[in-house]
Amino acid sequence: MADFLQAGGNIEDLMAEAERKHIVVYTPALVRDKATWALSELARITVAIEAAQDAAERGRLAAELHDMALLDGIGAALYHEESAVNAAVAKLSAFRGVKTAVDKALVTARKRRKGIESALQSDVDVASYEPVLVTLRQIAKTSGLAPQALNPHGWRCDPGGVWAVSVNKDGEEIVRKVGNLPLIVSGTGVETKGEGVLTLRWHALGAWRELEIPRKAALVARDLAPFAGMGLPVNSTNAGELVAYLDAYLARNEPILPRRQVATTLGWKAVTRAGQPGGRVFVLGDRSLGAEGEEPVNVATHTLRDYPLSAGYRAGGTPEGWKAALATVKDRKALVLALVASCAAPLIRIIPSAPNAILDFAGPTSQGKTTALRFAASAWGMPNERDEHGIVGSWNAKPTYLERVAGMVPDLPILLDDTKNQQDKKILAEIVYGVASGIGRGRGSIVGVQPTARWYTVLISTGENPIVSHMREHGGGVARVITLWGSPMGQESTENGDLARALNRAVVAHHGHVGPALVRLLLRPGAPEAAEAAWHGHLAAWSNLAGGDAVNLRRAETFALLSCSLDLLRALGLDLCDPLPWAWAQVSGDADSQGKADVNALIDAWSWAVANQGQLDSLPATRHPPNGGYIGRAGRSKEGEDYAIAFGAAALKKHLSREGYEPDAVVRRWDERGWVTRGEKYNREKVVKVAGACCRCVCVRLAGLIEAGCIGETGAADLWPPLEKPAASEGQEGAPPHRDEDRWSRD
Question: Are residues 516 and 647 in the same domain?
Fold first, then answer.
């Protein structure tokens, strides 16, 4: 019985268990005994039929040939002594009205013979025509399989592999190998989002191996074949047939297969028990943290392979070792703030009003920013970005990748090092705003729309320049950013350098302890309600400090979240300074983010116009059409008009878009601040003559340029040359230049 009996028990135990479960067990001696008994029964029936008085009695006796035990015995006789069976059958067939019953019995008996041959020729002695590998494994005391499972119709799974079974017109069984290793479905599951998962098991190299894959992948050939790289016994040639086998296996056995919940992402998961809501757990790496007495949620293994990042959320070293490292920096406000922000991520989902947050360490290189990032990461797992499973990432990534990471670890911090690695600053701004919003990009699918990813997280970032410098138009995102300028380690010194190196070594050796401990606090009864109440209390305090400033009021929500995180860390017995008042002082003075965006947009537009004066009409340099086309007009086109510069609407929108602004929103806010001269027909745009032709322009007042700081307190006469008539073109004295499409901006 080879590998299947190594789990324990001797042959006598196995035979007794098989008899109890009504499973046919074949050995050569048993086949001989069955054959002898069947031949004697055939002889008895033959004598009885010969002595029968009428056709009815002969029919009743012939029906005995279809007894299941006798058919199995005839099959054994066909295998052991076929000539004797043929002689007995020929004698029976000679009686009137019996031949049809004899032929049908013989067809079935031949099938039984095939089953006996397979059993005796395989490396196991236990088999039956109908039952299966699963029942066999359960007898052999091997775990993970459902009792009473059966081979699907048309298929057989045995220690030799997976076989397609059919019967030809002569009743002979035709067996064709589909897979070289036995493969079964040992369980089904449902992901916490509702998607199905199958647990596949196969026997290879003397051991049972297991893999959990999405149900839809197991039932689509092109999706099943890639799992060959993970050891699944499938290839491009047999994937289609194995899909048909798995589908048939589920159709017959799914009601009796074990069913469980699995998770394909990390973070908070709602669980059910007996079909009823059963609380929540926190999935972290390859384990799940739940309240005492709750069953864990199993993490699908294919997820860990697809996202190596998740394997980095593991513990290393000891809690005492990590606490010793913390003791050396407990008074360093920037480092403590990084730890507090990292541990705030699990709070966001359980406090519905709490926002996603962004902590940005900006400053010159080699000042301890990456050290702060590693220290923050050490609360949850491997902080070494060079480790294969390190949880500190790089800004050198596409938005789609970072969106997938956020969706994979939705309740854990995202840690990204060095913004200069992101060459496209528009992508950087898009990523930051996406993290702040907490909602991924909407995507379609062949059946409608894909589920939109959502995350509840804290982004901790480092870079030489502040993130907000790349977020010109994302005012809501800017309000979520806490930017700390300078070295997290303090002033540059030999002592601080040694401390940073020692801290890096310590957290690489000891990590992944404080985060799970904090989660266990939140899993206690009543903890989510207490956290939400604490958040509202902290929010009231920080809102008082914000006064009436709208941006600082939004920042107060983030600081209330960080206050709750600090409370929990102290509840764990950690001795920490309070870095929040210091951080508030750093950011609260920089409140009017949207107002500054409007000012910066006008300064950029003005600088662009000054640098391209040759493309402004009414200046001496534009007496002939410029090569690049016109971008607007300098000064008024006639007396009495109140503007200092008229930007061509199309050219201005192109320039603002290129610089990362939202043109329509910028012009609307300029108008609300009174910086724009409104037109009668086009509202915020006014028809102005540029090079003799009418053009829709955004006309900015002199007062707006002065308020934005584009120019000093000066008059219009000092800004541009006095108004004068356009110079005459050659051959036409006093005539305006001929209108030509090439004069208009192609910028």
Answer: no
